[in-house]
Design a protein that fits this description.
Blueprint (H helix, E strand, L loop, with lengths): L2 E13 L2 E14 L3 E5 L6 H9 L4 E10 L2 E2 L5 H7 L1 E4 L6 E5 H13 L5 H14 L10 E2 L5 H15 L3 E5 L7 H18 L2 E6 L12 E6 L2 E6 L1 H10 L2 H7 L1
Parallel strand pairs: 3-10, 3-11, 6-9, 9-10
Antiparallel strand pairs: 1-2, 1-4, 4-5, 7-8, 11-12
Helix pairs in contact: 4-5, 5-6
């Protein structure tokens, strides 16, 4: 059982006009096998939270703490956070010209596990993961995300999660840009990762449509860099009907 604890987290982003505070005291605890959905309007700080946890240098932690199984995440470099068990599926996955999907994934797996996987076993796991996400096996020989559609990039992110088996996965708007069929496939991959690996999930989204397939245990409303309300899956239904306006007015 693993636990990710975020306590009174304050974060600023570096801009041309200096540091701009974005997060204002976020508290959140995620345990293995739990799915936490964070929902909120544009500009509320959801992605800032995701990238701060992953260690993006653009974001400065001004106060607060983040621990994973008691270890200080904020003291770790980006690669150390990944080896500790954190995984980030990006909202806008980047292209990596000159690096094949196969080499990228095997190098990542080697780094996480501390030893290279056996080729025969690895290729079986890779092909199985690609098949489950309905990706053409030919993609393993293509450069990472180069020429991929938006849906293919998101599927590739979940393939990574399946193979790396993190303790905690942060999914930053993984549902954006997906059609209905792709959404179902990606959601199935998320659910299987949770079931097979007991992964804790932090699912960031604007909309409730992915929550029809990935059922959250907890829903958190994020407004102006804070959690404005918390509840169960029924809170997502409330947001679908009423939107965020009341929360924004209260925060203002």
């Amino acid at each position: 059982m693993s636990t990710l604890e975020i306590r009174d987290l304050h974060v600023s982003v570096n801009t041309d006009n200096g540091a701009e505070p974005i997060l204002h005291g976020v508290n959140l605890t995620i345990k293995s096998g739990e799915t936490h959905a964070i929902m909120g309007p544009n500009g509320s700080g959801k992605s800032t939270l995701a990238y701060s946890l992953a260690g993006h240098p653009k974001y400065e932690i001004t106060s607060g703490s983040v621990t994973l199984d008691g270890e200080d995440v904020l003291a770790m470099e980006v690669d150390e956070r990944a080896r500790a068990g954190l995984f980030l599926a990006m909202q806008y996955p980047v292209e990596v010209p000159g690096v094949s999907v196969s080499n990228f994934l095997r190098t990542a797996k080697t780094s996480i596990d501390g030893e290279a996987p056996k080729i025969r076993t690895w290729m079986k796991e890779l092909n199985t993961a690609m098949d489950e996400l309905k990706m053409d096996p030919a993609f393993i020989n293509r450069n990472v995300n180069e020429g991929f559609s938006g849906g293919e990039k998101k599927r590739h992110e979940i393939v990574q999660m399946d193979l790396l088996k993190p303790k905690m996965a942060i999914l930053d708007e993984t549902d954006s840009g997906l059609d209905v069929d792709a959404l179902r496939v990606v959601s199935k991959g998320v659910n299987e990762a949770k079931e097979n690996n007991n992964t804790g999930m932090l699912l960031i989204t604007h909309y409730t449509r992915i929550l029809r397939y990935v059922k959250p245990d907890y829903v958190h409303v994020f407004v102006k860099g804070r959690i404005a309300e918390e509840g169960g899956p029924e809170l997502a239904d409330k947001l679908e009907e009423e939107g965020y306006e009341a929360y924004e007015e209260a925060a203002a």
